Amino acid sequence: MFKTLSRTFCLVAALAAGATAIGTAPAAADGFRFGITIGDGPRHLSPAGHRGDRWDRGHRRGRGYYGRGCSPREAVHKARRIGIHRARVVDVGHRSVAVAGRSRGDRTLVRFARAPGCPVLRIRG
After folding, report:
1. Whole-angstrom Cα distance, residue 97 to residue 109?
2. Three-class SS state of 78
3. Lowest mean pLDDT: which of 6-10, 101-105, 110-114?
């Protein structure tokens, strides 16, 4: 009886050790990397938004960069789409862009918010 119990215990211990070894093998494979490089070598990127390459220089773009908000050019395009002829930018502020032009023969002033999509704040005409 003792012989059978000891054999069973050894078999269970061997199976547990094998299962543990198999279970840790995929976790250890995360550190392994494989790649083929042709040219200058791999490009390493920093965390999102801090890449520092030529595509993400938002703080260095300087004057005329409007990010995701409404630029004066977008405001003029939207004014033309809503029916204002000879649209031109007359005022650019921190929170709005004013576009003047003609609609149905009368002078018209449209003020757009600097939010994405250029929402209309006011139409005066």
Report:
1. 10
2. helix
3. 6-10
Torsion of CA 63, 108, 113, 65, to 10 degrees: -20
Q: What percent of the chain has pLDDT over 90?
A: 41
CA distance 112 to 60: 26
Q: Which of 70, 104, 111, 112 is nearest to 84 (CA)?
A: 104
Residue 18 in this model has a pLDDT that exceeds 70: no
* Cα–Cα nearest to 69, from 80, 60, 58: 58
- What is d(CA 117, CA 114) in angstroms, rounded to the nearest whole number? 8
Helix (H) or strand (E) segment spanning residue 101:
strand 96-103
12 phi and psi angles, rounded to 5 deg? -65, -40
Residue ranges in the chain assigned as alpha helix (H): 2-28, 72-81
* Banded pLDDT at 73 (limits 50, 70, 90): very high
Task: List the beta bridge partners of residue 38.
Answer: none
